Amino acid sequence: MNLNLLIGKTILVVEDNSINQMLVKHVLSKSGVTAIHIANHGTEALEFIKENTYDVILMDIHMPELDGYQTTQIIRNELHLSVPIIAMTALAIKGEDSRCISIGMDGYVSKPFTIESLYNELERVLNQAEAGLAKLHQLSDGEVVIDLSYLDELASSDNAYIKTMITLFIESMPLTLDKLEQYNNKGDWENLFKTAHYAKSSLSVIQIKKLYDLASQIENTARLNKDFSTNELIIAKMKSIYAKAEKLFHKELQILSIEKQVA
Question: Regarding the domain delimited by 3-134, which CATH topology (the fold level of the hierarchy) does it fall under?
Answer without folding.
Answer: Rossmann fold (3.40.50)
